[in-house]
Amino acid sequence: MKKLLAVVIGALAVSATANANWYVQGDLGYSKTKFTGGFNDLNMGKVAPSVAVGYKVNELRFALDYTYYGKKNYSYHIQENATDYEKGNGSIKAQGFGFSALYDFNLDIPLKPYIGARLSLNKVKLNDTSVEVNSNGHFTGSDNESHTKFGYGVLAGASYQLTDNLALDAGVQLQRLASFENTKVNQYGVKVGLRYEF
Prior knowledge:
By secondary structure, the protein is mostly beta strands. It is built from 1 helix and 8 strands; from the N terminus they run αββββββββ. The chain has a single domain, classed as Porin.
């Protein structure tokens, strides 16, 4: 982590003669968040908006972003036999802040492919309320969990320079958002957006 911070600080300290610019970017995409382990049935596919502020130094870009991966409401009913059953409902929500380092391949044309890596701090929130009825009686319960975890991932895509300051960006991403208890949260998606350089 210290080495990564040193690289970032060094890049931001490049002399004024370098081709350096601040930029803002807004993206809209489709995100698939998959839970493996204790929440296998809570996978969700949602529209995922994100906003970012970044700094470009020649072919390198560094960005801080916020991404909302979505919220899913669910319900279930488990019938054990003619009289015994369990039913409930709940919701799951995921969002995160990230830091990305990207490299643009300069092909001397308006289209620039890129690759990158992303570190993130993600929050996954789960709420569940249930009712169980069996021969021993009637029972109610609730489970509210909130997990804030570090994640990591890879990015790839391409941008097309529309004007000197405005670029169209399209990309894909694959990430591990969180890991808690016996559950792993993975995310992959596609996105498209606009980037404005100052």
